[in-house]
Amino acid sequence: MADGNDFSDLLNDLAKDIAAEARIAIDDAKKLLANVGPLVLRWEQEARAAEAAGDDELAASKRTSIRHIRAAAVLDIAQHSVVAQDKLERAILTAFDRAIALLP
Amino acid sequence: MTRRRGYIPVLFILALWAAGCASPGFVRGVKEYAPLVATELRAYATKDTESDTATRASRIAYADALAEAAMQDPVTLQAVESAWAPAREPYGLYLDHDPKLDPDERGLRVGNMARLDRLIQAEAGRWIYGRR
After folding, report:
1. H or E segment at B43?
2. Which residue of A has its CA nearest to B125?
3. How high is the pLDDT of residue A84?
4. Is the backbone of residue B128 left (phi > 0), alpha (psi -120 to 50) or beta?
5. pTM exceeds 0.90, yes or no
6. Which residues are CB-contacts of B6 (< 8 A; sequence separation ≥ 6)?
7. Does A67 sit within 8 Å of B4, measured CB to CB?
């Protein structure tokens, strides 16, 4: 039969899993950030040049590209956070089921 | 036994919380990305002179549905999946055809499509209490 130590082990494993997921998210962010600076600078310069030339459509497209970089970061973080939440839910709900099973 | 029983109300509340809506990460990702795709797809469909009227109208409808799925409260996996599936291919066509995009811009957008796919997959794989 399960006891309090089982919950403790479960939560320790969970903490390790979530820390590992956070490390992957940080590595992804580092990779993305390594390329962001030059791209944002280039696209912002192109957007300003397009505006000066009266091409608002091209300027908007370049600024949308900058927003896509931000979206890439958010989507990466989101994916890792969903995986981490999934692990959290699994551990908590498994503990819940075990606790119910302990009832006399 | 009393100590063990003490876990139960806390775990029950957490279980109810976990069984609820889409995860915050999923909602955040969709709200950031889907409007960009919807705007670009709508603009492409509106200006496209090669496709027939019905094709353009359906692409505008896909763009609108995607934007709406991201604005819903609450945002749901089902709505996002249903809106993204038909919008994906025409959005890919837009990326192939827009001369304003340089290879880096195109590559970034293609990468983001794959990112949304992975996010949807992760959300769909969530282990929801009561749906095991």
Report:
1. helix B24-47
2. A86
3. 85
4. beta
5. no
6. none
7. no
